[in-house]
Amino acid sequence: MPVTIKNAEGIELMRIAGQILGRVHNEVAKELKAGMTTWDIDHLAEDLIRSYGCTPSFLNYQGFPASVCVSVNDEVVHGIPSKYRILQEGDIVSLDMGLIYKGYQSDAARTHGIGPISEEASLLIERTRQSFFEGARMAKAGNHLFDIGRSIDAYIRPFGYGIVRDLCGHGIGRHMHEEPEIPNYRVAKRGMKLKAGMTLAIEPMINAGTYAVKWKPDGWTVVTRDGSLSAHYENTVLVTEDGPEILSLVEE
Q1: Is residue 199 over pLDDT 70?
Q2: Alpha carbon 215 to chain centroid, angstroms
Q3: How confident is the model at residue 1 (pLDDT cuts 50, 70, 90)?
Q4: What are the tens digits of pLDDT across the range 218-242?
Q5: Is beta strand 243-246 parallel, antiparallel or unpaired with respect to 68-72?
Q6: Which helix (H) or strand (E) holds 238?
Q7: pTM here?
Q8: Mean pLDDT score across all residues of the chain
Q9: List of long-range contacts for 68-73, beta carbons under 8 Å, 24+ apart
């Protein structure tokens, strides 16, 4: 699928989709607590998405059985919600969700601590979040695609964390996954030149240990190979002549 440039109508619909998704993330975050199950989170988020007149993007997408990817501690992404997975104080949980509004998609992820968490976990979450902004600031017309990953890498590398290489960001629009793929790490080439109207899902996945990951037998859940904690932060971003417009971020 070629890289798509959105027209004014498409951009406005993606803005609305992004703002709704940002609000859903904020509302779900307020409800997180020890004792709830990952299924509870999925059920809550799906109800909220539908209450805004939207459709969950992930439900049944390529066979995924839920509306939210709920990944706990060493789970990087694509954790399948379960009535038997109970959150404990000290856990960290990554919520990756998407929705469709009038045919246009938005995709965003956040990592949260449950109750008091370790300093290691807190720093990992905050640095992963900041690495997104370091990468997203390069989403300006005239820059190159791989400038995004180079900026993420330059920020993260001094901390000694591992940047996941087996998964990457992507274009987004009428489809959840469009071209181009967006690595979160430094590569030798510069990649395509960015143009105004491109919409990108930029999503660093950062491990406290090495970058190596593996898939669990369920075929979906990705975990760190060394058992270290992992954090995930993502937004849908519009490339403009003046810099990035972050479509799915709604500050409290």
Answers
A1: yes
A2: 18
A3: low
A4: 999 999 999 999 999 999 999 999 9
A5: unpaired
A6: strand 235-240
A7: 0.97
A8: 97
A9: 68/41, 68/42, 68/95, 68/96, 68/97, 69/94, 69/95, 69/96, 69/97, 69/109, 70/38, 70/41, 70/42, 70/94, 70/95, 71/96, 71/221, 71/222, 71/230, 71/232, 72/38, 73/229, 73/230
Domains and CATH numbers, the chain: 8-246 (3.90.230.10)
**Residue for token digits 């990087």?**
76
Distance in angstroms (rounded) separating the CA atoms of residues 24 and 13: 17
The 10 Å Cβ neighbour count of residue 50 is 13
Phi, psi angle pair for 69, to nearest 5°: -85, 115
Instruction: Determine the length of the chain.
Output: 252
For residue 47, give the H/E element and its range.
helix 38-51
pLDDT in tens, 40-81: 999 999 999 999 999 999 999 999 999 999 999 999 999 999
Q: Does the pLDDT at position 163 exceed 70?
A: yes
- The per-residue DSSP string of 67-83 comes to SEEEEETTEEE-PPP-T
Q: Are 161 and 130 in contact (CB under 8 A)?
A: no
Residue 55 burial (CB < 10 Å; 0-12/13-18/19+)? Answer: middle
- Two tokens at 215? 């898939």
pLDDT of residue 48: 98
Positive or negative: CA dihedral 54, 219, 226, 202: negative
Residue pair 37/78 in contact (Cβ under 8 Å)? The answer is: no
**Are 153 and 219 spatial neighbours (Cβ–Cβ below 8 Å)?**
no
Both tokens of 231, joined, read 């954090």
**Left, alpha or beta for 222 (phi > 0: left; psi -120 to 50: alpha)?**
beta
pLDDT of residue 251: 84
